[in-house]
Amino acid sequence: MRTRKWSCFVFAMTVLVVGGAVNCGWSLTEDERNNIEIYERVAPGVVNISSTVLEHDFFFNIVPRQGAGSGSIIDPRGYILTNHHVIEDATKLEVTLANGKKYGAKLIGSDPDVDLAVLKIEAKRQELTIIPMGSSESLKVGQKAIAIGNPFGLGQTLTTGVISSVGRTIRSSNGALVDAIIQTDASINPGNSGGPLLDSSGKMIGITTAIFSPTGASVGIGFAIPVDTAKRVLTDLIEKGYYAYPWLGATLMTLTPDLAEALKLSVKSGAMVVETVDGGPLDRAGVKGGRSRAQIGNNIILVGGDIIVRVDGEAVSDADSVIRRIRRMRVGDRVSMEVVHWEGGTKNVTVTLGERPKDFRHRGEQPRGFPRRR
Amino acid sequence: MDEALRQNLQSRKLILFSLIVAFGSVIGGVQGRCLTADEEATIWLYESVAPSVVNITTSACDPEFFFCSTPTESGSGSGIVLKEEGIIVTNRHVVANAEFIQVTLSDGRKKRGDVVASSVRDDMAIVRIDPGDSPLKPITLGNSEQLQVGEKVLAIGNPFGIGQTLSAGVVSMTGRSIRSGGLVLKDLIQTSAAINPGNSGGALVNSKGELIGMNTAILSPTGTNVGIGFAIPVNRIKSVTPGLMNRWGTWLGWLLAGLIAYWCVRRILQT
Question: What is the DSSP annotation of A187-218?
Fold first, then answer.
């Protein structure tokens, strides 16, 4: 009899637990409850950032201009992750927490290439809600994406959508390669920049950044920088104020099959070294840059340099894939490369990656001080 | 059987059952924390439908510039695979005036396409490609008669030519008629899924992964998505495409007309 009673008790509890999970008193769908729960949990960790930029008008009078963006609290010490373009050139930064409290913020570090920056505010620990970081590695097209931000400076706003594509490569405003970008159809408008893109468990998967829009407002195509990229640069940004990019010290160019045929080369594709920096990592490893000019079509290019065909044993077919591979490494790492000489014959070299100089500029990058679209 | 033993057995069965149910719910709960059921379904849908949607890039030529010596890239759109031997349906306005049509499959393969038939009135065109050694995956056709407002839909296409993109929304209305570029399109599906220039000719699928429409037009003051997109219902595609692909009817018609004319002329000559 006792076993029976006990089993009845277990059964009743199970029914209660399962019943509670399946049918919860609300008349909201599972999806709605998920959105609400995430908003309530994460929204206190999303801040509004207002920046003041001093600009000169036509008569060289100094005119302050206000900008607005969003950011995520990522650390109990008060570190805030946002976009570089939100804080760029700002003379004064003010952070407003979700509870309305305002703090003056200090710029800790920023990186224009991946469009990320870290700010710090001096706030009490209990006022800071930390947004947990997830992983952007195994994202699937079709899964839910939730953006929280401050569109048009309106104040905190939640938008939802799905992940539209992953792994696209775009070029940021300064010509740098930003890879593995996340695309979503959640509405992302100016002012959302720097805010978190979350998955259905409330973890940060990206930092919403640019919108691809001919109209200046959301058309259902929004981009976010993957959180894995942020994790990679974060420690350096906090400790040094900048991210030490691994550097080859060379200008590379994609060798297309057409070009290879025109130049009568023995290889079909690879990354051609156009020029090397004296004393740079590739130069020290004995890789040669171009020596003579050749006209192909309408372009004049430096030819005669070595062609990189393998990096760490894996074949590379273009310059971007070499850059992407190097990007994932750290300064001081050793890379083995297989290069093909212009005259023929291959050579294996080991390159020790250097640190990219601070005054480095991408091809086509505008000089600083030039008015930029925000 | 002994009464006590039976009771004992029964209660054990009950405990076992309860444990299984509890275990199941815990497993379900754990999985649900990673991705919700809705997300799992959407991911599965995208993965099963995406291979049937292609990107179309068209080049036109400028006859004033060295007699068409350099075709310029002029437009981008999307297309839906109807038959595995390379029959693709798209919008006529995507391939109209195109000199050269390049079809990019979802696995990245690029093929040259030819317009085999088109209908101005329905804004529909059939493009044929040579699928090579591996056949294409045709899309499953649904029924647009049974569509209900509020039903979830997914749009797959190539907006602004940036590459394959998924956007989600609901059916906003059915049976809409709009005027688009001097053409009246009737009985369209209106959707809130983001549709932009370049999505034209792409697939609109329901939550079962069946094609219910072909994204065709948008209503917008800016020329980009504002949340009002239109799709040609799949039932129209089903009724129009066989006629477009089947040229025998046309040949037979001409043959008949020729015979009648011959007969008339003979009668006239006889009299």
Answer: ---TT-TT-EEE-TTS-EEEEEEEE--SSSS-
Quote the tokens at residue A122. Answer: 């001096």
CATH class, A246-355 region? mainly beta
Cα A245 to Cα A259: distance, rounded to the nearest angstrom:
30
Assess whether A85 carries a catalytic annotation: yes
Record the tokens describing residue B84, joined without a space.
Answer: 């595995």
Per-residue pLDDT of B3-61, as tens digits, reads: 666 666 666 766 666 666 566 555 544 444 478 888 899 999 999 999 999 999 998 76
Look up the CATH superfamily of A144-240. Answer: Trypsin-like serine proteases (2.40.10.10)
**Do the first three CATH levels of A144-240 and A246-355 match, i.e. the same topology?**
no
Tokens 């995208």 correspond to B46
Confirm if B214 and B237 have CB atoms less than 8 A apart. Answer: yes
pLDDT in tens, A92-148: 999 999 999 999 999 999 988 888 999 999 999 999 999 999 999 889 999 999 999
Strand (E) or helix (H) holding A372: none
Q: Do A142 and B14 touch (CB under 8 A)?
A: no
Query: What gap in Å lies between CA B170 and CA A141, rounded to an integer?
Result: 18
- Distance in angstroms (rounded) separating the CA atoms of residues A75 and A77: 5
Helices A2-22 and B3-34, packing angle to 10 deg = 20
Separation of first and last alpha carbons in chain A:
76
Place of tokens 């408008």: A189
Q: What does CATH list as the number for A43-127?
A: 2.40.10.10
Alpha-carbon span A126 to A261, nearest angstrom: 65
- CA–CA gap between residue B56 and residue B110 (Å, rounded): 10
Question: Does the beta-carbon distance from B17 to A11 stay under 8 Å?
Answer: yes
Q: How far is A175 from chain B (nearest CA, A)?
A: 18
Contact A340, A315 (CB under 8 A): no
CA atoms of A303 and A305, how far apart (whole Å): 6
Separation between Cα atoms, residue A248 and residue A269, nearest integer Å: 20
A62 touches chain B (CB under 8 A): no
Catalytic residue, chosen from A85, A113, A199, A321, is A85
What residues pair up with B101 in beta bridges, in sequence order?
B58, B113
Q: Does A162 touch chain B (CB under 8 A)?
A: yes
Split at pLDDT 50, 70, 90, the class of A287 is confident
Per this entry, what is the length of chain A? 374
- ipTM, two decimals, is 0.72
* A18 contact B CB<8A: yes
Burial class (CB in 10 A: 0-12, 13-18, 19+), B184: exposed
